[in-house]
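Field reference: sequence -> structure
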Amino acid sequence: MTFVTKKAALASAIVALFTLAACGQSEKFNRAAYDVCLTDAKKAGSKLAGATFAKFEDAKIASSTGDDLFRVNIPYEMNGQKALFQCIAEKNRDGSFKIAD
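Structure field:
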């Protein structure tokens, strides 16, 4: 293996490690965004407080690269009707989330 090939292989390995680390953080942040939106949907006095919401695995969560805003779509059922709860969660500097203004 030549020096250039070794260097390319090392660079690929480093990129793969960073990608895996980012994926782990991504799921952690997605789950936190889901949790804050679900809590907001179920809060006392909410029209959806009595709804049955989908699990994290069935929700759709999207964020833009480098953006601290997460769009969270959680399917729910209430009174025999299926619908979608939509929420924007904002990541704070400490890694916690809040409902975006």
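Note: Residues 51 and 79 are 8 Å apart (CA to CA).
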